[in-house]
Amino acid sequence: MVLGLQPVRELLKRHGRQVHDVLVQAGESPRLEALARYAQDQGAPCRRVSAAELDHLGRGTRHQGVAAFGPPLSLSPLSEILERPDLLALALDGIVDPQNFGATVRSAVGLTEAPILWGENGAAPLTPSTFRASAGAIEHAVLCRVPSLHGALHEAALQGIQVIGLDPTATTPLEDLHLENPTILVIGSEEKGMGRAVRKSCTALGRLTNTARIQSLNASVAAALALYTAVLHRRRAAGGPPQRASDASDPSTE
Questions:
Q1: I need a labelling partner for 244 at 20 to 30 A (CA). Which of 47, 128, 135, 155 fits?
Q2: Distance in angstroms (rounded) separating the CA atoms of residues 234 and 73
Q3: Is 108 in the same domain as 187?
């Protein structure tokens, strides 16, 4: 189940007729009318329901007057991701807040379509709250859920992929590392950082912050900054032009 205007629109854009039910709150609203027409254009069945029914379905998640039911999210196998010659991926360790998880997915899709890895335990579940926080980006994301995150990272390192953990106490700034190589960037939780086993699986540590006043950043902010740093690094390594601010802007709206 997906809730919210933008998440439902992205669900329809991605899956079209495979979306088997779109529920739109009854009443006069130009935004909801536009979404209902878009659902019908995509071949998805649409029906009007009460606000109370949507409130019951959402269980506290803001729905903006719309809900939809689509096919299960597609998960990619680890082996497929590790085979990418230009791999740039995110690994999330202990990110249990749906808002952070969803916002990180949004950054990964928007900046460089980076695959996202996380462990089965100790991570935010894939719920409507997570989907809403991603503003629908999760429908376009490359997702990989693994039984053991540190095991997956260890396997990546054995295949010659550098595994860089973000650590505010690291001696090396992230931009000084060789980000043009196949890379997995590891984001730990804001409270505890990376777990011990995950840290041991890293082949290098890098820091984002350069001030003693603030050491830790919001996990989704750290992920976005790390990915953007890697993207710029790879552009320079390839001899391409620097990215303009307008190229990185996100035109999507809530």
A1: 135
A2: 30
A3: yes
**157 and 88 inside one domain:** yes
Helices 30-41 + 5-15 axis angle, to 10: 10
- How far apart are alpha carbons 163 and 152 in whole angstroms? 10
Q: Give how far Cα 167 sits from Cα of 52, 54, 160, 216, Å.
A: 45, 42, 21, 8
The structural domain count of the chain equals 2
Tell me, what CATH number does 109's domain have? 3.40.1280.10
43-90 pLDDT per residue, tens = 999 999 999 999 999 888 899 999 999 998 889 999 999 999 999 999
Distance CA 81, CA 104 (A): 18
Same-domain status, 157 and 203: yes
Strand-pair partners of 21: 69
Q: Which of 47, 69, 91 represents a domain boundary (last residue)?
A: 69
**Nearest C-alpha neighbor of 226 from the set 140, 170, 165:** 165
Could you report the per-residue pLDDT of 1-23, keeping only the tens digit for each? 999 999 999 999 999 999 999 99
Residue 13 to residue 36: CA distance in whole angstroms? 13
Residue 179 tokens, joined: 């980000």
What is d(CA 121, CA 155) in angstroms, rounded to the nearest whole number? 18
In this prediction the pTM is: 0.85
Strand locations in the chain (E): 2-3, 21-25, 46-49, 66-69, 88-93, 116-119, 143-146, 162-166, 183-188, 204-206
Question: Residue 220: which residues within 8 A CB-CB, separation 6 or more?
Answer: 99, 100, 103, 104, 106, 107
Asked if residue 45 and residue 149 are part of one domain, the reply reads: no
